[in-house]
Amino acid sequence: MITEHNGKRIAFGLNWKSRLSEGDVHGDARSVKSKYFWYADKAVYFGTLPEVETTKKQRASLKSSFASLLKKKQRSPLYAGAVALLHRYPDVPNLVMVLEVPKDDPAYQDGGYIVCGIHQSRPRSGYDKILKTEVEVSEALKAFKQLCGSPGFELFGDVKISGITAASWDDVHKGADQSALMRKTKSAMVNPLVFGMAAAIVLSTFGFAYSKYSAYKRAEAQRIAMAAQKNSQQLYDEELMARRLDGTVLAQNVNAVLAPLGKMTYSLGGWPLKKATCNLPPDKQMACTFDYVRPEKSKATYETFLAAAKQQFDNVEFAGRTIKASKAFKNVAFTEQGKAIDAGKSQREEVVEFGSALQRLERFGKPKQDEFQPFAMPPGASTAELTSPPILTAAWEFTTPLRNMKELASFPGYATVSQLAVAYSDSPAYELDSSMAMVTVTGKIFSKPN
Fold first, then answer.
1. SS3 string of the chain?
2. How far is CA 265 from the centre of its chain?
3. pLDDT tens profile 378-426
4. 184, 237, 348, 363: most buried, per Cβ within 10 A?
5. Span 92-114, mean pLDDT?
6. pTM above the 0.70 mark?
């Protein structure tokens, strides 16, 4: 399907396939009757957009709705939604976005859901599709969970599903950049004028010479065009420059970030707070979801919660015994990610320095760090083809009582935080590594080439 949001046409429901050999991508797209496809130079996969099957009623609606806009839409660019998600959530290798189909889409008048899965940082075949019912969505999520295995996946979207992180079409729009552009499939038809000219050239010595010259010019033009194409290093440099401008929160400032949570009411209208999850995305505002759970045999109701909460939340959703209230905090100590990258040291130095910092935290909780990986590698670029080593990044995590967050003040400037999750309990606990309020901090560190 193709939908328009804030002036950008975005396509979902692509068929994704591995590309194991060189060849004509246009031919591959024509073989499945796809008018548009996505492919980046040197990418190992490509996506084709199938035609939507419609009823007579839908076709009539489509014709009346889009006849006047057809020329305009043909001129406007088209972006692959799955690739846009890759760029919106670059640090999430496994994710699923579930969005409601726009109500004004003539091809989906009965509604439906867009389900788009990213597995190991690439679109996954069979998980970029449009589904009609919640049951189908649930089955797709179960299948994707089995595909991901123990690492699992993160769930984003605008539907009511347990564990989902709020996201919208705006998030897709933010990731729809130049590298997500789709291409129009070229026709395989032979131009009859060209064919006639070729026949005339066969009958003429001058024509033969001219054809040889034309072939040379075409080859030369192709060589120049190939030279003008961006190589992996150029693609990487551009991506890194853009990612340097993203917002991030330094781990040493995490206490200030947690300050707004300390002002939240821990019980509203008889509903105690059980969990607070705060994401720190690149757009420089902290988005938090608060889970309030109704106790057994309580007199608390949705009405008592709303009366106590008043206007302190941006959105409130009701799900049985749980109320999910969300709020965005804009006055948070974000800094440009480039500063954290510049503060990075060599991988060996960080193994000693940051590794020691985590070891000092072991008596307070459970710290861990993952392996280093290249940072900000864009689609179409290969680490093997880089002329300079890339920036490296490694994810880290720490679970500890909330009171121990002050220990992160001594963290180096290359350590950042991307999520804070606080779990609240009714049972008192006074050990160094346990408390009524336990927080899990997730982030990453940046390392420069040796």
1. CEEEECCEEEECCCEEEECCCCCCHHHHHHHCCCCEEECCCCCCEEEECCCCCCCHHHHHHHHHHHCCCHHHHHHCCEEEHHHHHHHHCCCCCCEEEEEECCCCCHHHCCCCEEEEEECCCCEEEEEEEEECCHHHHHHHHHHHHHHHCCCCCEEEECCCCCCCEECCHHHHHHHCCHHHECEECCCCCCCHHHHHHHHHHHCCHHHHHHHHHHHHHHHHHHHHHHHHCCCHHHHHHHHHHHHHCCEEEEHHHHHHHHHHHHCCCCEECCEEEEEEEEECCCCCCEEEEEEEECCCCCCCCHHHHHHHHCCCCCEEEEECCEEEEEEEECCCCCEEHHHHHHCCEEHHHHHHHHHHHHHHHCCCCEEEECCCEECCCCCCCCHHHCCCCCCEEEEEEEEEEHHHHHHHHHCCCCEEEEEEEEEECCCCCCCCCCCCEEEEEEEEEEEECC
2. 32
3. 777 788 889 999 999 999 999 999 989 999 999 999 999 999 999 998 8
4. 237
5. 84
6. no
Token code pair at residue 102: 């726009």
User: Which amino acid type is present at position 51?
Assistant: E
